[in-house]
Amino acid sequence: MTPDLWYLFLSSVLLTVLWIPHIIGQVMTKGPLTAGEYRDLREQSDFPAWVRRANRAHINFVEQYGAFAGLVIVAHLTGAANETTALAAMAFFWFRIAHSVVMLAGIRVLMLRTLIFTCAFLSLLVIAWQIAF
Prior knowledge:
This protein is 79% helix and 0% strand. It has 133 residues and is an all-alpha fold. It has one domain: Membrane associated eicosanoid/glutathione metabolism-like domain (Four Helix Bundle (Hemerythrin (Met), subunit A)), CATH 1.20.120.550. Helix 1 runs antiparallel to helix 4, helix 1 runs parallel beside helix 5 and helix 5 runs antiparallel to helix 6.
């Protein structure tokens, strides 16, 4: 397995488990969902801040994951995968880990979360550049 695909795999695992803190927080706060709540979801503002942050961390990763997966797969299939794409894929994964930790912990120092997100985004652009040129 190439490094690019390895970090895609690890990112997939991260995405798979990142929803767990949010669900645990919901159950701890209000108990399991009722039948009606499966249709009309609970109001998020009723939950503690860390539960809302956990939900946002997961949603934010879902929004970026599709581009990452698509770019890594295209790079692999077209033969554009190289040391640069491997480094960018590794950086993306670790930036997403850092983003999740900062988001869940509620760290608000120097726009750290925004900086980490931007670095993950730039990693995507590096992979795209390697594919295009």
